[in-house]
Protein backbone atom coordinates (compact mmCIF):
# COMPACT_ATOMS: atom_id res chain seq x y z
CA UNK A 1 0.00 0.00 0.00
CA UNK A 2 2.86 2.35 0.86
CA UNK A 3 4.41 1.63 -2.56
CA UNK A 4 1.13 2.47 -4.27
CA UNK A 5 0.90 5.82 -2.47
CA UNK A 6 4.48 6.57 -3.45
CA UNK A 7 3.78 5.76 -7.08
CA UNK A 8 0.63 7.90 -7.11
CA UNK A 9 2.55 10.75 -5.53
CA UNK A 10 5.25 10.48 -8.19
CA UNK A 11 2.62 10.54 -10.91
CA UNK A 12 1.01 13.63 -9.39
CA UNK A 13 4.36 15.40 -9.14
CA UNK A 14 5.16 14.55 -12.75
CA UNK A 15 1.73 15.75 -13.83
CA UNK A 16 2.16 19.06 -12.00
CA UNK A 17 5.58 19.56 -13.57
CA UNK A 18 4.14 18.95 -17.02
CA UNK A 19 1.27 21.36 -16.30
CA UNK A 20 3.76 24.05 -15.35
CA UNK A 21 5.83 23.60 -18.51
CA UNK A 22 2.69 23.49 -20.65
CA UNK A 23 1.39 26.68 -19.02
CA UNK A 24 4.71 28.43 -19.60
CA UNK A 25 4.70 27.36 -23.24
CA UNK A 26 1.19 28.77 -23.74
CA UNK A 27 2.28 32.10 -22.27
CA UNK A 28 5.49 32.25 -24.30
CA UNK A 29 3.50 31.46 -27.44
CA UNK A 30 1.29 34.47 -26.67
CA UNK A 31 4.03 36.98 -25.93
CA UNK A 32 7.49 35.51 -25.51
CA UNK A 33 9.48 34.81 -22.35
CA UNK A 34 8.56 38.21 -20.95
CA UNK A 35 4.95 37.05 -20.81
CA UNK A 36 5.82 33.98 -18.75
CA UNK A 37 6.42 35.53 -15.35
CA UNK A 38 6.18 33.03 -12.49
CA UNK A 39 2.93 34.48 -11.16
CA UNK A 40 1.37 34.27 -14.62
CA UNK A 41 2.59 30.69 -15.06
CA UNK A 42 1.08 29.75 -11.70
CA UNK A 43 -2.28 31.23 -12.67
CA UNK A 44 -2.21 29.51 -16.07
CA UNK A 45 -1.32 26.17 -14.47
CA UNK A 46 -3.86 26.51 -11.66
CA UNK A 47 -1.16 26.27 -8.98
CA UNK A 48 0.27 28.58 -6.37
CA UNK A 49 3.39 30.61 -7.03
CA UNK A 50 5.13 28.68 -4.27
CA UNK A 51 4.32 25.44 -6.05
CA UNK A 52 6.12 26.63 -9.16
CA UNK A 53 9.30 27.25 -7.20
CA UNK A 54 9.13 23.78 -5.67
CA UNK A 55 9.47 22.32 -9.16
CA UNK A 56 11.63 25.02 -10.70
CA UNK A 57 13.83 26.99 -8.28
CA UNK A 58 14.32 29.70 -10.89
CA UNK A 59 12.57 31.04 -13.96
CA UNK A 60 15.70 30.20 -15.96
CA UNK A 61 15.37 26.51 -15.06
CA UNK A 62 11.76 26.52 -16.21
CA UNK A 63 12.71 28.15 -19.51
CA UNK A 64 15.52 25.66 -20.07
CA UNK A 65 13.09 22.77 -19.70
CA UNK A 66 10.52 24.49 -21.90
CA UNK A 67 13.13 25.02 -24.62
CA UNK A 68 14.20 21.41 -24.30
CA UNK A 69 10.70 20.14 -24.97
CA UNK A 70 10.19 22.57 -27.85
CA UNK A 71 13.50 21.54 -29.39
CA UNK A 72 12.67 17.87 -28.95
CA UNK A 73 9.46 18.42 -30.90
CA UNK A 74 11.30 20.26 -33.68
CA UNK A 75 14.01 17.64 -33.89
CA UNK A 76 11.46 14.83 -34.12
CA UNK A 77 9.78 16.55 -37.06
CA UNK A 78 13.06 17.30 -38.83
CA UNK A 79 14.36 13.78 -38.24
CA UNK A 80 11.23 12.32 -39.80
CA UNK A 81 11.95 14.43 -42.88
CA UNK A 82 15.66 13.55 -42.87
CA UNK A 83 14.89 9.82 -42.60
CA UNK A 84 11.99 9.94 -45.03
CA UNK A 85 11.68 9.27 -48.73
CA UNK A 86 12.89 11.53 -51.51
CA UNK A 87 16.24 12.75 -52.70
CA UNK A 88 18.60 14.56 -50.32
CA UNK A 89 17.82 17.74 -52.28
CA UNK A 90 14.09 17.37 -51.69
CA UNK A 91 14.58 16.49 -48.03
CA UNK A 92 16.88 19.44 -47.41
CA UNK A 93 14.44 21.88 -48.96
CA UNK A 94 11.53 20.29 -47.06
CA UNK A 95 13.36 20.45 -43.72
CA UNK A 96 14.14 24.15 -44.02
CA UNK A 97 10.64 24.89 -45.29
CA UNK A 98 9.06 22.95 -42.43
CA UNK A 99 11.02 24.81 -39.74
CA UNK A 100 10.43 28.18 -41.40
CA UNK A 101 6.67 27.72 -41.68
CA UNK A 102 6.31 26.62 -38.05
CA UNK A 103 8.37 29.59 -36.91
CA UNK A 104 6.14 32.01 -38.80
CA UNK A 105 3.02 30.27 -37.45
CA UNK A 106 4.25 30.64 -33.86
CA UNK A 107 6.33 33.78 -34.03
CA UNK A 108 6.60 34.49 -30.29
CA UNK A 109 7.67 30.95 -29.50
CA UNK A 110 10.09 31.00 -32.43
CA UNK A 111 11.62 34.30 -31.36
CA UNK A 112 12.04 32.95 -27.84
CA UNK A 113 13.70 29.84 -29.24
CA UNK A 114 16.01 31.85 -31.48
CA UNK A 115 16.85 35.30 -30.16
CA UNK A 116 14.87 36.78 -27.25
CA UNK A 117 17.24 38.16 -24.58
CA UNK A 118 17.53 35.61 -21.76
CA UNK A 119 19.73 34.52 -18.86
CA UNK A 120 23.06 32.95 -19.89
CA UNK A 121 22.00 29.42 -18.92
CA UNK A 122 18.93 29.68 -21.15
CA UNK A 123 21.03 30.96 -24.03
CA UNK A 124 23.44 28.05 -23.53
CA UNK A 125 20.48 25.69 -23.83
CA UNK A 126 19.45 27.38 -27.08
CA UNK A 127 22.94 26.85 -28.48
CA UNK A 128 22.82 23.15 -27.56
CA UNK A 129 19.47 22.74 -29.27
CA UNK A 130 20.64 24.48 -32.43
CA UNK A 131 23.58 22.10 -32.53
CA UNK A 132 21.20 19.17 -32.20
CA UNK A 133 19.17 20.49 -35.13
CA UNK A 134 22.38 20.86 -37.11
CA UNK A 135 23.18 17.20 -36.43
CA UNK A 136 19.90 16.15 -38.02
CA UNK A 137 20.46 18.34 -41.07
CA UNK A 138 24.02 17.07 -41.34
CA UNK A 139 22.66 13.62 -42.14
CA UNK A 140 20.85 15.06 -45.17
CA UNK A 141 23.95 16.89 -46.37
CA UNK A 142 26.02 13.73 -45.95
CA UNK A 143 23.52 11.76 -48.01
CA UNK A 144 23.62 14.43 -50.71
CA UNK A 145 27.39 14.31 -50.90
CA UNK A 146 27.37 10.51 -51.10
CA UNK A 147 24.78 10.57 -53.88
CA UNK A 148 26.66 13.24 -55.81
CA UNK A 149 23.86 15.80 -55.49
CA UNK A 150 25.91 18.11 -53.27
CA UNK A 151 29.58 19.05 -53.66
CA UNK A 152 32.07 17.77 -51.10
CA UNK A 153 32.14 20.04 -48.06
CA UNK A 154 32.83 20.20 -44.35
CA UNK A 155 29.72 18.63 -42.81
CA UNK A 156 29.96 20.29 -39.41
CA UNK A 157 30.57 23.75 -40.85
CA UNK A 158 27.87 23.41 -43.51
CA UNK A 159 25.22 22.17 -41.08
CA UNK A 160 26.05 24.94 -38.58
CA UNK A 161 25.92 27.59 -41.31
CA UNK A 162 22.63 26.17 -42.55
CA UNK A 163 20.97 26.47 -39.14
CA UNK A 164 22.50 29.89 -38.64
CA UNK A 165 21.15 31.08 -41.98
CA UNK A 166 17.50 30.19 -41.54
CA UNK A 167 17.32 31.06 -37.85
CA UNK A 168 18.96 34.44 -38.43
CA UNK A 169 16.60 35.12 -41.33
CA UNK A 170 13.64 34.51 -39.02
CA UNK A 171 14.67 36.89 -36.24
CA UNK A 172 13.24 39.97 -37.93
CA UNK A 173 9.93 38.45 -39.07
CA UNK A 174 9.26 36.82 -35.67
CA UNK A 175 10.35 39.70 -33.44
CA UNK A 176 7.53 41.07 -31.23
CA UNK A 177 7.89 44.53 -32.76
CA UNK A 178 7.77 43.25 -36.35
CA UNK A 179 4.78 43.87 -38.57
CA UNK A 180 3.02 40.91 -40.12
CA UNK A 181 4.89 39.49 -43.11
CA UNK A 182 3.21 40.89 -46.21
CA UNK A 183 4.19 38.04 -48.53
CA UNK A 184 4.77 34.99 -46.39
CA UNK A 185 5.08 32.51 -49.26
CA UNK A 186 7.76 34.59 -50.94
CA UNK A 187 9.72 34.84 -47.70
CA UNK A 188 9.55 31.09 -47.13
CA UNK A 189 10.67 30.45 -50.71
CA UNK A 190 13.57 32.89 -50.43
CA UNK A 191 14.86 31.40 -47.18
CA UNK A 192 14.62 27.86 -48.53
CA UNK A 193 16.23 28.78 -51.84
CA UNK A 194 19.14 30.55 -50.16
CA UNK A 195 19.81 27.62 -47.82
CA UNK A 196 19.54 25.06 -50.61
CA UNK A 197 21.84 27.06 -52.89
CA UNK A 198 24.43 27.38 -50.11
CA UNK A 199 24.60 23.60 -49.66
CA UNK A 200 23.99 22.38 -53.22
CA UNK A 201 25.82 25.12 -55.09
CA UNK A 202 22.91 25.51 -57.51
CA UNK A 203 19.24 26.37 -57.62
CA UNK A 204 16.73 23.66 -56.78
CA UNK A 205 15.17 23.91 -60.24
CA UNK A 206 18.39 22.58 -61.77
CA UNK A 207 18.47 19.46 -59.56
Characterization of this structure:
It is elongated, with a radius of gyration of 20 Å. It is built from 9 helices and no strands. The mean pLDDT is 92. By secondary structure, it is mainly α. α2 packs across α3. It has 2 domains: 57 residues, Arc Repressor Mutant, subunit A (Orthogonal Bundle), CATH 1.10.10; 144 residues, Tetracycline Repressor, domain 2 (Orthogonal Bundle).
Quick take:
By secondary structure, the chain is mainly alpha-helical. The chain has nine helices and no strands. Helix 4 packs antiparallel against helix 5 (88-105), helix 7 packs across helix 8 and helix 8 packs antiparallel against helix 9 (184-200).
Sheet with the most strands, sense and barrel status: none
For the record, the CATH class of the largest domain is Mainly Alpha
- What is the CATH superfamily of the largest domain? Tetracycline Repressor, domain 2
State the distance separating the first and last CA atoms. 65 Å
Q: Helicity range of the residues?
A: over 70%
Please state roughly what percent of the residues sit in beta strands, choosing from under 5%, 5-15%, 15-25%, 25-35%, 35-45% or over 45%: under 5%
- Total strands: the figure is 0
**Helix count, DSSP H or I runs of 4 or more residues:** 9
> Radius of gyration, rounded?
20 Å
Order of helices and strands: HHHHHHHHH
**Second rung of CATH, namely the architecture of the largest domain:** Orthogonal Bundle
Average pLDDT rating:
92
Amino acid sequence: MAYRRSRLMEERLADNRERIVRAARHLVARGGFREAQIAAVATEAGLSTGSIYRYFPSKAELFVELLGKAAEHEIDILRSIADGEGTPSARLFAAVESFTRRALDGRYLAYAFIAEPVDPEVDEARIRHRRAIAEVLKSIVRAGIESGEFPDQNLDASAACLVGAFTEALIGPTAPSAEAVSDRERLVEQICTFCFRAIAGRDKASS
